[in-house]
Structure formats: structure tokens, C-alpha cells
Amino acid sequence: MYYKIDLKNYKKKVVPFYDTFDNYKNLKWEQVEMLSEELENFQDSFGKPWDEWDLTDLQHRLKNNWSFYLITDNVGIKAWSFIDWSRRYPYLCNRYVVPKHRNKGLGNDLVWLRCNEIKEQGYDTAMIKLEDWNTPALSVMKENIFTKMD
């Protein structure tokens, strides 16, 4: 289900440290290595392998007006997400939390860090897809800024 996000009265939220990339060449070698390793083991919310994208897709997206957000720690990748800036409203897409870091609020942080960014860029509206079956992803709905789109 697609939702419109109304950011007119949105107040910036505190989120974990993250890196933002608009150009593939700005990724560090270690980050590319960590991404490659994680993508080999990429799993959906049910623990099944998921071939959603690869590094070639990442390069293509970053050349075509997307931003990539990466949360890491000193051990490895914790989570990532994208914004597609080429649509009518910035589109928050491909939110992913590494399985061992799930159920700790990082999925919500990925939504809020992108809302922070969208608001900083001067937008008052964004769009996101939230699947009805994905209970952890739906937890952001407690904020009264989401409206179902037809």
C-alpha cells in the first residue's frame, strides 16, 4: 500500500549516525566490501533469500537521482535505505535492516532519517510503500502523518 507522508508540521527526529551517498564513487572500499558480503546473504523479513538489488543496481540508482543511506558500526552494516528523488514526491524505498539488528527500532530510524532529509531539502510531502503483512514496518504508522493513496 502506498502512503503519502505529510511533513508540513514534522519535527526532526534524533536518529543513529548514518552515511549518505549520492555518488557510488564516494563509497569507501570497506563499505563496498561489507555491502557485497551482506547482499550475498540478503534475506527478507521471513528469513528467505531476496535478490532485490546488487551493486550494479546501486551504481545505476545513484546515477539517476537516488540517495543511499547506510547505518554501520565498527563491526559491519546494520541497515540501509534509499530515496528516489525523481518522482512527483520523494519516494522512501528499500528499507532493510540486517537480521541480527532487527526489532531494535532501526527500521523506524530509516524512515525518520529520510523524513529529516526530505524536510531539510525543502519538501513537505513524501511517499512510502508499506506492506500490510509487514508488522514491524507498519509501526511508523503511529505517527499521524501517513495517508493511504489510491
Helix content percent band: 25-40%
> What general form does the structure show?
globular
**How many domains make up the coordinates?**
1
User: Number of helix segments?
Assistant: 4
Cross-sheet strand order for the largest sheet: 2-3-4-5-6-1-7
Q: How far apart, in Å, are the first and last alpha carbons? A: 9 Å
CATH architecture: 3-Layer(aba) Sandwich
CATH class: Alpha Beta
Q: Residue-averaged pLDDT, rounded? A: 91
Number-wise, the strands total: 7
According to CATH, the fold-level topology is: Aminopeptidase
Q: What share of the residues does DSSP label as strand, in percent?
A: 25-35%
Q: Supply the CATH superfamily name.
A: Gcn5-related N-acetyltransferase (GNAT)
Report the sheet with the most strands, covering strand number, pairing sense and barrel closure: 7 strands, mixed
Catalogue the unreliable spans.
Answer: none
Q: In terms of quaternary structure, what is this?
A: single chain
Order of helices and strands: EEHHEEEHEHE
Please give the radius of gyration in angstroms.
15 Å
The structure class reads alpha+beta
